[in-house]
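Response to reviewer comment R2.3. The reviewers asked that we include at least one raw input/output pair. We reproduce the pair for Reverse transcriptase Ty1/copia-type domain-containing protein here without editing.
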Amino acid sequence: MKRSKSDPCVYFNVDKNIYIAVWVDDLILLTSNKVERNKIKNKLMQYLEMKDLGKASRCVGLNITRDGDTIMIDQGKYIRDVLTKFGMSDCKPCKTPIEVGLKFTQSAEDEEMDYPYQQAIGCLLYIAQGTRPDISFAVNTLRFNKEPRAEHWTAVKRVMRYLQETKDMKLTYTKDGESNMRGFCDVDWASNNIDRKSRTGYVFISQGGAVSWCSRRQQTVALSTAEAEYMAMSSAAQEALWLRQLHVEFGQPLAGPLHIFSGNQSAIKLSTNYCYLPRSKHIDIRYHFLREHVNNLEIKFNYCRGDKMIADIFTKGTTEHKNLYCIAKMGLRSGVVVRNRPQP
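Raw output as returned:
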């Protein structure tokens, strides 16, 4: 068994088709080789006090469902527990996690309120990072942990109302899903009213479901939409290179460059243009590394129309229609199990 250089919590043997994921004292063993599986279990039990829980159905708060060629993961039970914990189990559901165009300000006039704000944000972050990319933007926007106001707590409760509506959603991967990994990146330029920093969002999709996603505020102020998009593309490129390396380690290298879709044609041209451009000379050199990887055919940026941009959901509040489009493209489905051929 080798330890992954890309993810130190993963051990694998490509030749024997064995993969082990470790999280503290929880292990998931993936293999189609029953003989090797039993050997590994017996070996581990010689050195560790270990309990074999059989077929994986739940791990670190994630529910795992297999049905033929379909794998689904969800946090339905955890979401219900969170709603109960914060008195929202009977709340009125809503269709989107955050209002379109909602902006927060740091007001000194409002009286600070006593809410279990940090606890709620911690719970929602765990859900957003686990199986619910659709709430990533809303949760990462609600960052007023030290002095939350009534408007912030109202927004937190809206996220919970949305989870009430969608608590049975499962992140779904299918054998028949698109196997060629694709990425989508987007930006909301100067969206922060306080410091005018932009917000980066990206998502990578494989086998019909999201495998990696992010919504975060950029570190520096961008002077144009093209510059902000270029910085977002740089962040997406870093994640793409990590995903490529992971595939190489697992003996399944990607065929050709990993395609990332962006909504700004000027930024796409900037990623391939080595000429001197006065308007972009101030952009930090750390963002230009992506030109090298584009030239090496490791990644490729393509244009995507705004109405087809899945990463919109990571940079701004969207309408119900756009929200439904994005979650469908990311593989979030209701709790209905898809019946395929029987498991081997």
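The radius of gyration is 22 Å. The first strand starts at residue 2 and ends at 3. Further pairs are available on request from the corresponding author.
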